[in-house]
């Protein structure tokens, strides 16, 4: 795995400083030109923000974002009754604490979220790999050298400034050389394999039809040997599992239901 030193850039450091107190503790940047060269035209950054030169990708590792959300909920009763409480919290923080201060300096900044479905998006998985924020895994999610599978990609900022600061996960691809492969044995329905990766139909059918096995957590994800000390707390695990199942169930109904 190739590792690059973290580049020092004033704009990037301001973003990191603003994001960290809210649990958004993974930040890296790559050039629009580099990302666009690897991506289909409809998902290119230049299609969303002509003139942008760099993409700053923001994520969270471990349970710090969830802890920040819980502090926010204490100060804003009823917040968890929203349809998308964690996503709404993420947007509130990114817009008020990161994007708005950048714009006040005269910097043009277009914000894109992976959880928004308004037609403006990027390929976040590829962006994370290109920017060195995360690598691929056979369990279908991105993984980080330190935090393992306990990360999420939360936002991308398209800015005019040239910022090339890849993270420590450039070239990170841990599964082919993993010896324990404990995630494979941990899946109760055999939906994870070295050769095929994550078998979505098999996983989804089991979760819909025999949900109690996987309702509170993904056993394969829990079994990953990377970053076990950063495992999400139980209430966060259950939150993500419920929402993932709700999002995938329409596909099950259309394609799998007998």
Attribute tags:
alpha+beta, 10 helices, NADH Oxidase, single chain, 258 residues, globular, disordered N terminus
Q: What would you say this structure looks like, in words?
A:
- With 258 residues, the chain is of the alpha+beta class.
- It has 2 domains: 10-159, NADH Oxidase; 178-255, no CATH class.
- The protein is 39% helix and 12% strand.
- It has helices at residues 10-19, 32-37, 45-48, 64-75, 85-104, 124-130, 182-186, 200-209, 219-223, 234-255; strands at 26-31, 54-61, 109-112, 151-159, 192-193, 197-198.
- The strands form 2 sheets. Strands 1-2-4-3 form a 4-stranded antiparallel beta sheet, sandwiched between helices. Strands 5-6 form a two-stranded antiparallel ribbon.
- Strand 5 (192-193) and strand 6 (197-198) form a beta hairpin.
- Helix 1 packs antiparallel against helix 5 (85-104).
- The protein starts with 9 loop residues before the first helix and ends with a helix.
- 36% of the residues are buried.
- Mean pLDDT is 94; it is low at 1-7.
Describe the protein's topology.
Layout: H1 10-19, E1 26-31, H2 32-37, H3 45-48, E2 54-61, H4 64-75, H5 85-104, E3 109-112, H6 124-130, E4 151-159, H7 182-186, E5 192-193, E6 197-198, H8 200-209, H9 219-223, H10 234-255
Antiparallel strand pairs: 1-2, 2-4, 3-4, 5-6
């Amino acid at each position: 795995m190739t590792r690059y030193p973290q580049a020092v850039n004033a704009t990037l450091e301001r973003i990191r400083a603003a994001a960290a107190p809210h649990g958004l503790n993974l930040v890296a940047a790559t050039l629009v030109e580099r990302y666009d060269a690897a991506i289909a035209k409809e998902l290119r950054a230049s299609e969303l923000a002509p003139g942008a030169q760099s993409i700053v990708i923001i994520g969270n590792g471990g349970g710090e974002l969830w802890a920040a959300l819980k502090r926010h909920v204490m100060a804003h009763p009823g917040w968890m009754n929203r349809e998308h409480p964690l996503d709404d919290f993420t947007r509130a923080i990114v817009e008020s604490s990161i994007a708005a201060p950048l714009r006040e300096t005269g910097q043009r900044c277009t914000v894109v979220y992976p959880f928004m479905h308004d037609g403006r998006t990027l390929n976040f998985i590829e962006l994370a790999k290109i920017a060195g924020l995360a690598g691929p895994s056979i369990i279908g999610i991105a993984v980080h050298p330190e935090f393992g599978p306990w990360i999420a990609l939360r936002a991308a900022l398209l800015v005019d400034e040239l910022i090339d600061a890849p993270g420590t996960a450039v070239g990170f691809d841990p599964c082919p050389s993993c010896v324990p492969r404990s995630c494979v044995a941990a899946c109760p329905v055999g939906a994870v394999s070295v050769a095929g990766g994550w078998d979505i139909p098999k996983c989804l059918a089991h979760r819909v039809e025999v949900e109690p096995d996987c309702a509170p957590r993904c056993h394969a994800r829990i079994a990953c040997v990377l970053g076990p000390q950063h495992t999400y707390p139980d209430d966060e695990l259950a939150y993500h599992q419920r929402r993932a199942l709700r999002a995938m169930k329409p596909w099950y109904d259309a394609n799998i239901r007998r």
